[in-house]
TrEMBL record:
Protein name: Calcium-dependent phosphotriesterase
Gene3D superfamilies attached to this UniProt entry: TolB, C-terminal domain
Keywords noted in UniProt: Hydrolase
A GO term, aspect molecular function: hydrolase activity
Classification via SUPFAM superfamilies: Calcium-dependent phosphotriesterase (SSF63829)
Origin species: Basidiobolus meristosporus CBS 931.73
Length: 322
């Protein structure tokens, strides 16, 4: 089956441009979209290509946080969390191999190192459970990948890091709405180009955070697009998985059974991440590097939006829903 076959078989949608090259205040490394309990959506790399320690709010475009304390901080992922009457955010610093915890107060944001290990490859992306277990993907990008160029870690609610598995180049990571399934992407390169892209699914014990029973959820060789990288992933409240194709100008909507339900076409090629926010949690914010052929590290960050038929998992949980 080819990509054109899939395009003919699944529902086609087109996302609407929200932030474009003419009005963007984000850099080309825009990533790590995350929603807070009010439905506001944030992303990293607010500023230019050198602003790697920043987080910005998407609407309105304004600076939310900048790490000025730790040398070399480069943020790539973000998640919000409510514990009691306090609001937190967890940000992945892939240069310093750590998760930063941000305590959000009305007057200020207080940061501290929450979970770290020099043995982590990055971390790159984050999935966060209701009980505060953090699951981390990481990767080493090389022209020719091998086993060990990706890893899967967990940080317990008290900040203890635990390595779960060594993999190929991992990136997107997400939990199912009931926290009982964990999705992780794995890819590999040959001669500088992607030649394999897969999604694995694990069983999770929501109470202990334990991960087990790895199984193949989807192999993109089935639709002849194994050469297009997976980047960020999110689930909605119905359990559908939304997968960005970085370089493919689309987000795929997949059912819990691994069926491709829809393709959401974007205005830019290099789609890096998605998150659901807005008043009802149903607006999908799609971020990535502007343009169709813009080189890595060049240009600015773009945002498209698209309306889903269900709220996102993260938004739903932050409303204190079961």
């Amino acid at each position: 089956m080819t990509l054109s076959d899939i395009d003919a078989a699944v529902t086609q949608h087109t996302a609407k441009s929200l932030i474009n090259p003419s009005n963007s205040l984000f850099g080309p490394f825009i990533e790590g979209t995350a929603v807070d309990d009010e439905g506001n959506v944030f992303a990293v790399n607010f500023g230019n290509a050198a602003s790697l320690a920043t987080i910005g709010q998407i609407t309105p475009q304004e600076l939310f946080y900048e790490d000025k304390f730790t040398k070399g901080t480069a943020l790539n992922a973000l998640r919000f969390f409510i514990k009691g009457d306090k609001a937190f955010a967890y940000a992945a610093d892939y240069v310093n191999h750590r998760i930063v915890e941000l305590t959000i107060n009305e007057e200020e944001i207080i940061s501290r190192n929450f979970c770290s290990s020099p043995n982590m490859l990055q971390p790159n992306d984050i999935a966060l459970s209701r009980k505060g277990f953090l699951y981390l993907s990481g990767m080493r990008w090389r022209p020719n990948n091998q086993a060990g160029d990706g890893d899967l870690w967990m940080c317990t609610p008290d900040g203890t890091p635990k390595r779960i598995e060594i993999l190929g180049r991992t990136n997107g990571i997400e939990l199912s709405p009931d926290d009982r399934r964990l999705y992780v992407s794995e890819a590999s390169n040959k001669n500088g180009s992607p030649v394999s892209n897969k999604i694995w699914r694990y069983d999770v014990d929501p109470n202990t955070g334990t991960v087990s029973n790895k199984m193949l959820f989807f192999d993109f060789v089935k639709i002849n697009t194994q050469n297009i990288d997976i980047d960020g992933m999110r689930t909605d409240h119905n359990g559908n998985l939304f997968v960005t194709r970085n370089g493919g100008k689309e987000v795929l909507k997949m059912s819990p059974a691994g069926e491709i339900l829809a393709s959401i076409k974007t205005s830019f090629s290099f789609v890096s991440n998605v998150e659901f926010g807005g008043t009802n949690g149903t607006t999908m914010f799609i971020v990535g590097r502007c343009g169709l052929n813009t080189a890595s590290g060049q240009g600015v960050g773009c945002v498209d939006i698209w309306e889903n038929d269900a709220p996102g998992r993260a938004w739903w949980i932050l409303q204190d829903n079961e």
